[in-house]
Amino acid sequence: MNSKFAVAGWLIFGVQVALAQSVADTPHNLSASSGNPIRAVSETRICVFCHTPHSESPRKPLWNRPDPGMTYTPYSSSTAAASPGQPTGASILCLSCHDGTIALGSLLSSPSQIEFVNGVTTMPAGSSNLGKDLSDDHPISFAYTSSLAVLNPELADPASLPSELQLDENQHLQCTTCHDPHDNTKGNFLTLTNQYSQICVQCHQKQDWSSSIHASSSATWNGNGNDPWFHTPYGTVTENGCENCHNPHQAGSHARLLNYSDEESNCITCHNGNVASSAVDQDFAKTYRHDVYGYSGIHDPNENALVDTRHVECVDCHNPHTTSSGSATAPDASGPIQGVKGIDTQGNEVPSIQYQYELCYRCHSDNADKPGSSTPRQIEQDNVRLEFDPGNPSYHPIEAPGKNNNVPSLISPYTESSIIYCTDCHASDNGNGSAPHGSVYPHLLK
Q: Which of 5, 142, 229, 421 has the fewest CB atoms within 10 Å around its CB?
């Protein structure tokens, strides 16, 4: 034999042995000797469940499973720059097991189906069975190019991705970008650990995320450990990172892959005393409140800053990727409301508020569907942007100090030059911060 071919043969054999050894102690070892709950009755070979040297599929690498031949529902979102289609490449190979439609023991190299213990045929129901509806899973099989990153400035240029995150030969992101089917040392066959969201932040570079409270909080789960939210393995909020709110597979809310289908639960599950110290869920149960439970499926991150259809959700006032605990003085926006859209004093939309009142004006200014005044007046006026206009003869000093230089009734520390927040009057009545979540008093007075 030619020595070059002999060396090449031994190298290939060595790689196969190394891969078999790495797979042996993982759930992908479906052989009878694995000890895994999902395993064959008598088949002892490990690699055969995916690969074969003969009678393989035209798909590489020496693929040993039938093509699923399914039509899948791909991920879709109003905020996605990419438009994923049907799965291709390595992803369709993964789905030949993980969509739950083809028997695990159905192999091209075997004339009969390999029998599995306990009567298992296809992938059992659970987190590993993704089904044919992939709209609740991270998008796959789309071209991740520099042009895509230009469309969405919060996507990293793919040229900057670490070597662990590999796109395929067509520059498509596939299951194998984040998962290595042969290596489970990092858990869930991840190519990088996702502690501190190490995988997520390689591609998703959210503005101001690193300085946000959700990226730095050492808070841990204090409530019911059986809550389905508590699916991440790391512990603290900062270690769990993106997975505090997002689930890359079988998410409760398909668009944007949130843990829960009802928007407010993604926030209140933590902000009810289980993780965050303040329990805002108690405020939302009060008679006068910003009723986050009263609306569903209306908010969209791409909506206008001026709210056209009346609704209120936590993320209308808080940007979870930007929010911080930083304080401020009136009229500046404090940390908890940093990074949200607003309406300025001229009625123009601003992508990120500078002043607190710009947030309030989203719903309480120029909207046709804004809340009406609860006080009957001869001339109806419920546009608070106009009411606080410093050009008026008088006004509460929300945007600028008042015009009266002699107000002896003012209580210290207020003076005639003070500027106040909307939330100095309208806020939760229990002293739970200055946020207008809920109050026992009409008009959300604190």
A: 5
CA–CA gap between residue 443 and residue 118 (Å, rounded)? 62
Tokens of 215: 């990226």
The single-letter code of the amino acid at 308 is D
Question: In terms of C-beta density within 10 A (0-12 exposed, 13-18 middle, 19 or more buried), how is residue 391 classed?
Answer: exposed
Q: In whole angstroms, what is the distance from residue 376 CA to residue 373 CA?
A: 7
62-73: buried (b, 16+ CB within 10 Å) or exposed (e) per residue? ebbbeebeeebe
- What is the residue whose two structure tokens read 């909080």? 217
Q: What's the chain's length in residues?
A: 446
Residue among 36, 18, 17 at smallest CA distance from 26: 36
Structure confidence by residue, pLDDT tens digits, 251-295: 999 999 999 999 999 999 899 888 888 789 999 999 999 999 999
The angle at the Cα of 178, spanning 90 to 252, to the nearest 5 degrees, equals 100
Q: What is the per-residue pLDDT for 277?
A: 82
Which carries the bigger pLDDT value, residue 252 or residue 222? 252
Query: At 279, phi and psi to the nearest 5?
Result: -105, 85
Token pair listed for 194: 């996702």
User: Mean per-residue pLDDT for 15-27?
Assistant: 71
- Token pair, residue 249, equals 């597979």
Whole-angstrom distance, CA of residue 425 vs CA of residue 434? 9
- For the record, the structure tokens of 121 come out as 């045929």
- Strands, E assignment, 159-306: 172-173, 288-289
Gap between the Cα atoms of 319 and 323, Å rounded: 6
* Per-residue pLDDT, 377: 79
The dihedral formed by the CA atoms of 268, 271, 272 and 273, expressed in degrees to the nearest 10? 160
Give CA–CA dist 225/206, Å, rounded.
29
